Every structure is written in C-alpha cells, then in structure tokens.
Amino acid sequence: MKGNVLVGQSGGPTAVINSSLAGVFKTAMDRGFSKVYGMRYGIQGFLDEQYVDLSDYIKNELDLELLKRTPSAFLGTCRYKLPAIHEDKTIYEKIFALLDKMDIEVFIYIGGNDSMDTIKKLADYAILTGAKQRFIGCPKTIDNDLALTDHTPGYGSAAKYIGTSTKEVIRDCLGFSYQKKNVTIIEVMGRNAGWLTGATALSKGEDCDGPDLIYLPEVSFDVDKFTDAVEKLLKKKDVVVAAVSEGIKNAEGTYICQFSAGSETADAFGHIQMTGTASYLANHIHEKLGCKTRAVEFSTLQRAASHLASRIDINEAFMVGGAAVKAADEGTSGVMVVIDRLSDDPYQSSTGVYDVHRIANGEKLVPREWINKEGNYVTDEFISYVKPLIQGDYSPMMVEGLPRHLTMNSKGYKDEYKK
Predict the structure, then answer these.
(1) Strand pairing class (335-344; 134-139)
(2) Which of 319, 308, 305, 316 is nearest to 393 (CA)?
(3) How far apart are alpha carbons 363 and 269 in whole angstroms?
(4) What letters, b where the CB count within 10 A reaches 16 and e where it falls short, cover 97-111?
(5) Residue 147 contacts by C-beta under 8 Å, 6 or more apart in sequence?
(6) Is-contact 246 277, C-beta < 8 A?
(7) C-alpha distances in angstroms, 361 versus 60, 269, 321, 356?
(8) Is 77 in a helix, a strand, or coil?
(9) Alpha carbon 32 to its chain's center
(10) Are 61 and 106 in contact (CB under 8 A)?
C-alpha cells in the first residue's frame, strides 16, 4: 500500500495555483496514494504542524472544478527560507520526523524560484540521510522567470489580465483627450524580469494602438530619455500611455521606486518591497512637462483575477500538478516539472522534469532580442511567444451574480449547484 502525499504552496499566488493543487490531489487519488495532506502556509506552517486532509474539502468533481477556479493559495502561502543544511540540521530533523510520523512518501511544493530552493535542500538532505521521501517542485509564478521551462503556470492568465486591462485603461484615457493632453503610467509587476510588462503589448490591435512605450527591467532605464520620449509623443498626440515594470532601474542599478516611497524592507530572500515606480514617473513628468498625469498600478489584481483566467493556463496548471505526482510515483526526486512547447499553431505542450539544482535561485529574463533597439518596446517575437498562452476562457461558477470560490469554510456551498 502506498503512503501519503504532502503538498504545499509558497510565494506569491496566481489565478491558477489551485488548479495545480487540484491536479496533485486527483492524480494522487487516481494512483492509489492513501491520503493527500495540504500544508497550511507552506513549509513555515508545516514546521508548526499545521496541515489538513484535502479529502475533507474535495469530495467530488464539482469541488475539484471549483478549486480550479479559485484564486490565491487555497492552503495559504509563505516566504520562508530554509537555512543551509550545515547551518542548522535541527530544522531538517524536525521536518523529516514529521514526514515519517505522517507516513509521507511524496512531498510536492508548488512555487517559484525560492520554493525550488526549498525542494533542493530537502532533496539533498534526504540523500544525505537515506530518507525514503521523494521531493518534487511544481512550477508556479506569474513572473514567468523560472529557468528551463518554456513558461510557468500563472503567467498566461496574468498576461491575459494585463493585456485586457491595458486596453481598457487606454480607452479611458482617450475619453479625456479633448480636455487636455494627458500621460498615464501603468506599473506592472516584475522585479528583474519583464515578462508581465511586455504583455501590455497584447492590447495592440485593430481597435487599440496599445501603449506608446514599454520599459522592461532587462534594459537600464534613463529618466531623462524617458521624459524626452514622452515630450516628443505629446507633440504628435494628446494621449500618451507608458507601461513600466516595477523593477526598472537606472544604469547604476538603483531601482526607480527607491526614489519614491519604495520600501527598503526585505523578505527572507532579500527582496525589497517594490511600489511607487509609476507614481514617481507620473510626478516627474508633471513637473517637467506640465501636463496632466496619473499612475495606475495593477498590483495584486494581476495574480488574483481568476475571472479572466486563460483556459490554456488552467489546463496546464492542472497538468503540471498531475505530472509532479506521476514523477514521484515513478521514483523521481529532486526535480521540477517543466512545460515544453511542442507547437504554436495549433498550440500544444507537454511536461518534462529537470534537476532542481539547475533551476533553484536562477532567473529567466526576457531575451534582449525580444526588446527593440531603443529599449522601449517589445518585438513581434515576444508577442508570438505569449499570445498562445492567453487563449480560451474558464468561466467562474456564479452565485447571485458573483463568482464562488472554494475555501476552508465553504463545505456547505456544494448544494447550491444542485438546484
């Protein structure tokens, strides 16, 4: 008889992170594992013995479908960095004692770069001690910056939301163009990788010109050149819209947000909190050019808008969750599941696995050749890459006009769909 599966979620959530959780649960049950336990608040919560039996919440296919449509981390998440093994073995001893106590055979962590660091360290400790557990990383991040995978679950839905919202912001800006010239700066998530900001270009089409300028953190940002570019555009048109990554920085490596109210507070992995890039630039343009400006931050909506999730993204998130269980069941450990793109038209993908040591703490950036020479827009190659990932819709389950989500307290909601 097979043992149990333990699954956790870590880092920033996505609109489809729970579809991967659903994939883990269903595949584990189909493959004959006894139970699937969920860590509450990732590895940090697990250290306090916080976990749940997922069968208490997923009782049928309807629950599974509801979970796939639920944004944020159903189990709760954390940003917790395990120490190096040689620095503190007691934490590892505690974790593995709990795993043995719960008869855990498979440990799956759904997350991004930092989460793969956790998988790497746990897998290494298991090898050192001869532990029976197998450790698998399941990719997740809207930032799309995980190495060796064509893209990450969560990115397609975030890109779909960003492209849609950019288009709507541009329509709103044009409605005020008669009154006076105006400049809008859209701030998009992305610390060092500009995959999300580049997605604003998806808004360009027959009914929309798209943003005038797009700035990614892969290219150093010059405030004076940006001001000159906006000034030149204002001589030709009344409305200018620029999209910027929150993580754009100058040639000296200073984040632009640090000139504003950006916090110096850092998380366990040394990442500072980023905010204020668009506000700083909007104020700067207003002072220099005297025109009306405003800053728009998409903020957490980029990762929470499950009502606009991509069907491709939902299905692939479910697929990698299942692939993680399958890989562990076949004896693999210390790897992360990746998505391989087989074709663009028609779009097809499959899964594979790579050694997590080749992925953890790495970062995949937008290729320089996918950014124009001036560094203020993306190329057609970028659009061709992202467009297949936003295709299809996954309609929410609506109750009284609003989407219903699966939560830890929603056991009584199931009957509403049987009427």
Answers:
(1) parallel
(2) 308
(3) 14
(4) eebeebebbbbbbbb
(5) 358, 359, 362, 363, 364
(6) yes
(7) 37, 10, 21, 10
(8) coil
(9) 30
(10) no
User: Is the four-CA dihedral 306, 371, 340, 33 of positive or negative sign?
Assistant: negative
Distances (CA, A) of 238 to 45, 93, 226, 295: 52, 64, 17, 17
Q: Where on the phi/psi map is residue 210: left (φ > 0), alpha (ψ -120 to 50), or beta?
A: left
- Alpha carbon distances (Å) from 360 to 124, 128, 146, 226: 13, 19, 8, 35
Helices (H), 213-342: 223-234, 277-289, 301-304, 311-329
Element (H, E) at 173: helix 155-174
β-strands 347-355, 4-9 pairing = unpaired
Note whether 349 and 340 are within 8 A (CB).
yes
Which residues have a catalytic role annotated?
143
CA 169/CA 47 separation, integer angstroms? 44
Tell whether the torsion through CA atoms of 98, 22, 389 and 199 is positive or negative.
Answer: negative
Q: What is the DSSP letter of 324?
A: H
- State the DSSP code for 175: T
Rounded Cα–Cα distance for residues 184 and 239 (Å): 8
One digit per residue, the tens of pLDDT, for the chain of length 419 reads 799 999 999 999 999 999 999 999 999 999 999 999 999 999 999 999 999 999 999 999 999 999 999 999 999 999 999 999 999 999 999 999 999 999 999 999 999 999 999 999 999 999 999 999 999 999 999 999 999 999 999 999 999 999 999 999 999 998 875 568 999 999 999 999 999 999 999 999 999 999 999 999 999 999 999 999 999 999 999 999 999 999 999 999 999 998 875 555 555 555 566 789 999 999 999 999 999 999 999 999 999 999 999 999 999 999 999 999 999 999 999 999 999 999 999 999 999 999 999 999 889 999 999 999 999 999 999 999 999 999 999 999 999 999 999 998 854 344 443 33
State the pLDDT at residue 413. 40
83 CA to centre of own chain: 24
CA 11 to each of CA 144, 153, 396: distance values in angstroms, whole numbers, following the listed order: 13, 14, 24
Q: Which domains does the chain have, with CATH numbers?
A: 4-153+306-362+393-413 (3.40.50.450), 158-304 (3.40.50.460)
Dig out the tokens for 145 from the structure: 């910056």
Size of the chain in residues: 419
